[in-house]
Amino acid sequence: MKAEERGLLHSFYEAHSRITMRKYFLIIAFACMGWTVKAQDTLRTVTLDEVVITGTKSEIPVEKSGKSIYKITRKDIESSPGKTVADLLNETPGVQMDGNFGPLGTNISYFVRGASSKRTLILIDGIPFNDPSGIDQTYDLRLLDLEQVESIEILKGGLSTLYGTGAAAGVINISLKKAGDEVFSGNAKIGYGSFNTINPAVSVNGTSGSLSYLFSGSYKKTDGFSAAEDQVGGGNFDDDGFEGYNFLGKIGYSVSDNFTLGFTSSIDDFDTDFDGGAFADGDNTSEYHQVRLGISPKVKIGSGSLTGDFFYSKLDRLFNSPDFLDPTQRFINEYDAETLQSDVVLNQNLSDNVKFIGGINYQNQSFSQPAVSETDFNTIDPYVTFIFDQSDLNVQIGSRLNNHSEYGSKLVYNINPSYLIPLQNDLDLKLIGSFSTSYITPSLFQLYGSFGNLELDAEESQSFELGGSIYSPAVTLNVAYFNRKDDGLIDFRSLFDGDGNFIGGEYFNTTNEIKTSGIEVDAKINLSSNLDLRTNYTYLDTKDDVVLYRIPQHKYGTTLTYLPSSSTNIGIRHTHTGVRTQPFFNTSTFTTDDVETGAFDLIDLTANVRFDALSISGAINNVFDQEYTAIIGFNTIGRNYNLTVSYGF
User: Among candidates 253, 271, 262, which has minimal Cα distance to 104?
Assistant: First the structure.
């Protein structure tokens, strides 16, 4: 595309965004006006009986939580057929995903409140998981299938006091399915969609006496489309396919009324094709294989409990590409990573108004690859949190001491008050505030890799948040202002000799201080007995633009759900992603340029119909076949569809 054409396109996007934004707030205003006329007590969608877990490591009513937590329920998942974990996260306020607009095998990054992936911790059933062989040690969301997921809680703000490294900007807690109360029940489904995508799955679960069980398996295969964009337009780029399977097994046993044991095992595996880079086709493949094994005992002690989670995970990655020096030969690179961790937590009520949460977390991470011998480090972190609950006032205070086998110790803390103000006519107002410090440990690669530096220290972060929520029988409104400061970021510098030849490099802690702030708004509104509206808006600002690469300053979305009957629902989703700045390496000048990509709007339609045990759901995504750029040099998915038939037994 010529520079003049790009300029015209950007001008169009900016004008369209301004017009769309005005229309958007008019729609919300009229929706709220409609609510004031039509609200009924029986239509309440978010009640004060809703509980969240992530903010305290224990169930707590949503009105007592002092954190910004957005919850994706199983109902939300079932009404989004064909979507992935990354797709659903991209629709939540304060979250921007990268890679989910390409073929299924595209690398996924997640940005919470403008922070890079390594500042958001992924939990599976409350346990941190990541990839010790990666440069940033982040978790690969492509490994997880939505068929295994019961709910997802997205907590915004720092929480290293409870969860340790990586929880600087947010925590994404993915809760897997649990056994049902019946002796035997199950579900079988098969989905088919664009690009010859097929997705069968089956699960069985039940409870008999002291024993409960759940076994779930799924398979997904797609021909995909070319990840790289063909600039010439000859149509010669190959499709990049994806094939994967997932297995989850859970067994629970009640030894007595006060002692239970849980066992978890899972296998996640996928193979995918990938191209040579921006605008470059390639005959490359990768294979990922992950195994997780865990045991979780729980003992009731008086008015509290002592729980333990002991997990082992192993992740193997293999990349197969043509050899750079001899294209007739293949170059294979393998990465092997292992994590052993235990988390023992005492959750105890000290009085009617004071709860104590204390524990100790141990992790051992190791990895190896052909160029690096096996390396590892250990962390041992004791932590304590006190929750003071006095009438409508709730205050959470906590601290954690990170003890790292390489750089020593790091102390973090948080204070998080909230106050619930009952108003009139079943209307409640909650005010929240928090200040927290967090840290991100250097990765094994940054410490021991080819350019490793054993003198690295942990990155540090400080987060401040103020917000409020309104709860009523027909509307829930959440507003939050946040401010985060990141220090000591780990970067890489290249070293050259006197003739300008590259002779190596090293990782180091920068002295830069990056400040990011923003506003998040989300609302759920019952417009009538069979019409629901859910909407959100996020604004981001930073004093260092490099932080917001591929992250929009403005993003908003709305979902309208219509229920013509108790067995049928129809939904329409609009997502607006604002203008973004992206780095792009210019091969003609051998420089990295900042390129602005235009805003884009996507419309998705979904429908679900139930006939007793049989359910049929379908979706048409990107209904208007919007052309847009997510990552420069790579294709984005156009109009696509999927249809799923499910049977419960």
Answer: 271
pLDDT at 583: 84
Cβ(412)–Cβ(402) below 8 Å = yes
CA distance 227 to 218: 24
- The 10s digit of each residue's pLDDT in 360-418 is 999 999 998 876 777 899 999 999 999 999 888 999 999 999 999 999 999 999 999 99
pLDDT in tens, 199-228: 999 999 999 999 999 999 999 999 999 999
Nearest of 474, 534, 430 to residue 47 by alpha carbon? 474
Q: What is the 3-state secondary structure (H, E, C) of 182-235?
A: CCCEEEEEEEEEHHHEEEEEEEEEEEECCEEEEEEEEEEEEEEECCECCCCCCC
Residue type, 379: T
Residue whose C-alpha is closest to residue 556's, from 532, 573, 531, 581: 573
Coil vs helix vs strand at 424: coil
Residue 413 CA to residue 159 CA, distance in Å, equals 9
Q: Give the span between the Cα atoms of 443 and 435, in whole angstroms.
A: 26
In SS3 terms, 139-195 reads as CCHHHCCHHHEEEEEEEECCCHHHHCCCCCCEEEEEEECCCCCCCCEEEEEEEEEHH
**How far apart are the C-alpha atoms of 226 and 104, rounded to whole Å?**
11
Inter-CA distances, 561 with 52, 224, 571, Å: 24, 30, 4
- What CA dihedral angle connects 90, 532, 55 and 556, to 10 degrees? 30
Q: Find the length of the chain.
A: 649
Q: What confidence category does residue 354 fall into, taking pLDDT thresholds of 50, 70 and 90?
A: very high
The residues spanned by each domain of the chain are 3-648
Superfamily holding 3-648: TonB-dependent receptor, beta-barrel domain (2.40.170.20)
